[in-house]
Design a protein that fits this description.
By secondary structure, the chain is α+β, with helices and mostly antiparallel strands. It has one domain. The chain is 27% helix and 24% strand. Strands 1-9-8-7-6-10 form a 6-stranded antiparallel sheet, sandwiched between helices. A two-stranded parallel sheet has the order 2-5.
Amino acid sequence: MNKYHLTNQILHESKDDPINKLMKLMSPIGWGWYGTDRKIHREVTDIEGREEYQDGNNWWHTYNVMSPQEVWKHKIGTCIDQSIFQQHWLRENAPEIETTLLWIQQYHTSDHMWMTFKRDNKIYYFEHAWGDRRGIYGPFRTLEDTVKQVYKWGDIQKGYQWKKVGTFKWKPNINSQKYLKMMGYDYSKEEWEDDAPDNNE
């Protein structure tokens, strides 16, 4: 498997190649989110006095899935927001490139979303939110092969589940709870399962 960097060649030499342009365009965008409290959050932090994971951190209480416009305005986004931004930008500027969003729950840790795209009938993985892994990877034979790569990077030994999201249809007020429910997040696989909220609520 090859990794392509902006400093080398990303699939094509041309600076005008849409994938090159997108990676460069996103260079000022960092990880985090613009919260419902109208603050920029650059890390998940505990809320004093609340020990349970779901109730006890700022992501759980202040996160809504950001629109592509919000990501660009605030130059920030989680893996969810950045993946949606990438897909939106390519569909607006290079609709000939087929894109698919994928999601993984790594048991006992967290979840991750990323975008894949096809070039010359081959699958590539576009990663930006995961800072130390930023780049384009591939080619891969199947979508699940990209899932296995993400799982490998997580260095997790307890299993995972994944989902082909395809296109994420953004709409306002998708908070953290609604998002995890949409993805089918399995709380029974987590270490804090006794404190997990009821998905049927």
